[in-house]
Amino acid sequence: MGRSARNRVIDGFVNSWRSHLLVTLSGNDEGRPAWVGTMELGDDAGFFGPGSASWAVHGGMATMVAGIRALLMQTLHPGAMAGVHDWSRYREDPLGRLGGTIQWLVTVTFAATEQAERESSRVGRFHDRVAGTYVDAQGVERPYSAGDPELLSWVHVVFTDAFLASHKLWGGPIPGGADRYVREWATAGELVGVQDPPRSDAELAAQLKAFSDTGVLMGGDRVAEAVRFIRDPPLRRGMMPFYRIMFAGAVASIPVEYRRMLGLRRAPLPVVWATGAVLGLVRLLLGASSTSEDAARARINRLAVS
C-alpha cells in the first residue's frame, strides 16, 4: 500500500471515529446539538462565567472520565440504585440518558441564568414521578423518591467529587482551586433541590465520608448489573478499546473502599497515564474549543457591546 493510500485509510478511520464520538456525546456528527445554539441567547453571563472554576472543570476532557466515575459511585446508594433500576431508560436508550445528563450539566455551566434555571426545572419535573421502595443495607424495605433530600445529596456529592477528582488527575489548574469549584457547583445542587450542599473541598470529603460511616452504602446484584453495563456500553467496536482505558482510569481514581463495594479492582497497568493519553487523542480529534463555551462567549460578547 502506497503512502497516499495509507493516509486515506488513516484519515477515514479518524473521521469515522470522530463522527461516532460526536454523535455519542452530542447526538449529531457536528458536535453541536440544537440546544447549544440557544445558549447564545439570554441577558447575562450565567451563574459562573469566564474565568470560573466550573467553566475550567466542565470544559475539559476529563469530564469524559468523571461521568464514568460518577455513574459508578451513584450505584452504591440502594435508594439511588432503585430509582435507576425502576425508572431509568439506560438499558433501552443509554445514549439518550447520557445526552440528557450532558444537557443539564452544560446548560447550568454555560447558559444564561434563566435558561439554567429552566433546564433544572425540567430535571426536577422528571424527578417528581420517580418513586418506589428499596431494601436498605440492613435489609429493611424503605420508600424512596428522587426528591428525597438524602438521595439528592448523594447524587450531588458523588457528582462533584467525581468531576473534581478527575480534573485533578487529568485536567489543568482550577481558578480559585478545589474550594472554589465545590462552592460554585453548590449552586447547581440547590437548583435541583439539594439541601446544604458542600461549599469547600473539606466539606465535600466530610459529606462523602458521612455516607460511608452511616452504613447506607452497599453493593449487591443491582450494583453488579449496573457496573457490567457501564463497563461494556453499546458503543461502536472501534471505540471500545479507548473507552475501556477510560473506564479503567475511572476505577483507578475511586478510593479502594468504594471499589470493593463495586466489585472492582484497580488494573495493575499504568491506566492513569493511559487515560491521559486517550483524553489527549480525543482533544486532538475534537479540537480544543468547546461549542458550549463558544456559544456562551458569543452571548457575553454580544452583551458587552450592546
UniProtKB/TrEMBL annotation:
Q: Which residues form the ER-bound oxygenase mpaB/mpaB'/Rubber oxygenase catalytic domain?
A: 55-270
Q: Which Pfam families match?
A: MPAB_Lcp_cat
UniProt GO MF annotations: oxidoreductase activity
Which InterPro entries does this one have? MPAB/Lcp_cat_dom
Q: Which residues form the signal peptide?
A: none
The name of this protein is DUF2236 domain-containing protein
